[in-house]
Structure formats: structure tokens, C-alpha cells
Amino acid sequence: SKLTSLGQLEMTWRSRVHFHPLLVRVLHKSRLRYYGKPEKKLDMPYQAYFEVADGSGMMSMVLWNSLCPEWYNSMKVGTVLLLEQYAIKTSYPFKTQPTPGDSQMKRFATIEISLNVRDPPTKISIIPEEMVKPEWGLPEVKYRFITRSELDGLPNNHSCDVIGLVTFVGRAERARKREHGEDFWLYRWAHAIDGTSDQPFILELFATSQPDVFEHIHPMTYLVCTQMRVVRDLTENPSSTIYLTTSNESQIFITGWHKGQPYTKDTKVKNFIQWTKTQSEADQMKKSVIGGYYPFPRPPNNFLKY
């Protein structure tokens, strides 16, 4: 059928009601958001953002309500979608923005694609990777992997992807979203090493929409975390309190989930796998720790400073 591109959509969307089908690749995926309120009678108040791209650039796509439980898990980073009968809306200005792996890619920020059950009822098709043709010109998923030795030179809030061998994972902890609210964030601390430094990556992992992965992080697993943000305490000793935290678009993968993921082609990931082959599993197991309370950043040594 006649396709349109994201670039053409941006130029012509105001003058149209019906749009030609779109062929796009998912580059980023946000966590699932529940926006239900007691007074509103919505059956499935869910929403998820994706960043999708074709040869002309990248745009946000929003999956609404009952389409979320149906499609969210199938739309992975790297998935190619054929979209028909979708709506175009003006962009929501306050949403989080992932950092694209390809800094040259054009971003269409004024509008977003809206996928709904009705008005109009969207038709979504997933194109298997082996049927994707090079002439469609769809961009590949690109990453920004860093090694532990590179981390100390990165600025606060820098976005990056990491891979490491887990040596410590803490228990799940809760933090209030608001001071007197009843909603909590669930998170756990983890350490991962990659052989480029004596220090591990210190990772603050909030529960994303991947409970099956979050609950099964354990020592000796190969952990990949994407779209992580650098957090450094600029006041005291900056190198001692540098860690990485998840963002709204972070994805977490552990051993057993790596097969077929786009990052397996990345050079730094391949280098890490080569390094793990030189390590003795028994030696690493002796240094591994699980559970317990992990106060971080560490409180000062004396009580007056505290």
C-alpha cells in the first residue's frame, strides 16, 4: 500500500483527517504508566510512550488504554511496526526525552502518533525481522555503551548504556514518590564489573515494566542497562559518589534475555563477552554478595558532618 513517512506527516498533518500507513522501527520504550483515579471510570487507564523512526527521522508514539496490555510486551526496542488508522496529536510538552543513540537523527517534536482502540481504531502489525527489507531505509538501533573506566570522566545527568557482570545485588527497597503520598517507587542497588577498572558500576535500578527481570537480578548474571543517567555528588568528593540511575526509558536485561537483542552487535558488548571468557567463575563467586542493607551514598565518617 502507499506509505507515508514521519517527515511528510509533520508537513501535512493539519490538512488531513486520514493518514497513509507508516512503517517504523521502535528505538526507545518508556515504562508503562497507570493514570487511574478513583473518580474516573476508565477500564484500563494505561499509557506508554515509544520513540519510533524511519528514514526521515524520529517521533513519539503513544499507546493508550486497553492497547497497552495487548501490545506493550510485543513492542520491543528494535521491533518494526506497520501502523494503519492512527491519529496525530500535538506533542505533550512535559514528557521525558530519551537520548538518541544516533545524535545526527532528526527529531520531530511538535506532533506525536496516537494509537487508540477507537477514534480511529488503530491497526498494528509487527513485521518479523527476517522480512524487513533494506530498501525500506529503516534506521538500526544504536547504543551509547560506556566502560567503567570511562565513567569517571562523564558529566552529571549524562545518558549511557552499560554491560557488566553482577557482583552484588541488594534487597528491594521502597521510597515514597511524594512526601505524604501513598505511592512508592521500588528500587534495588546492584554492582557490576566489566574488567576495565577496579571499581564496579554502582547501579540504582528502579522497577521498570519488566518485573520478571527486576526480580531475578542475581550475582554472576550478565546485566545490560540502557538509557541510564549519571549521578554525581558535585559537593564532596565527586569520584566517590558517582553512580548510575534508571530513567523513564531504561530497559534492563539479564542472562537468558539477551538473545536477539540489537545490542548484541555492539563492539563494547562483544569486548565484555571476550573479557568474561578470561575470568574464573569460582573466583568471582567468592567476591559476590546478595541482599542486606546498602546505605548509599555513604554517610560521613563523623556525626558532626552528618
Write the layout of secondary structure elements.
Layout: H1 6-12, E1 22-29, E2 33-34, E3 46-54, E4 57-64, H2 67-71, E5 80-84, E6 87-90, E7 107-115, E8 123-127, H3 148-151, E9 159-169, E10 173-176, E11 184-193, E12 201-206, H4 211-214, E13 222-231, E14 243-246, E15 252-253, H5 267-276, H6 281-287, E16 289-290
Parallel strand pairs: 4-7, 9-16, 12-14
Antiparallel strand pairs: 1-3, 1-5, 2-3, 3-4, 5-8, 6-7, 9-11, 9-13, 10-11, 11-12, 13-14, 13-15
The overall pLDDT average reads 91
Q: What is the fold-level CATH name, i.e. the topology of the largest domain?
A: OB fold (Dihydrolipoamide Acetyltransferase, E2P)
Q: Any idea what the shape is? A: globular
Portion of residues in beta strands equals: 25-35%
Quick one: CATH class of the largest domain? Mainly Beta
The assigned CATH architecture of the largest domain is Beta Barrel
Q: List low-pLDDT spans.
A: none
**Total strands:** 16
Structural class: mainly beta
The radius of gyration computed from the alpha-carbon positions, rounded to a whole number of angstroms, is 21 Å
User: What distance separates the N and C termini?
Assistant: 66 Å
Number of helices: 6
Could you give a short account of the major beta sheet?
8 strands, mixed
CATH superfamily of the largest domain: Nucleic acid-binding proteins
Secondary-structure element sequence?
Answer: HEEEEHEEEEHEEEEHEEEHHE
Instruction: Give the total of domains.
Output: 2
Protein name: RADX protein
Organism: Chionis minor
Pfam family, one: RADX
GO molecular function: single-stranded DNA binding
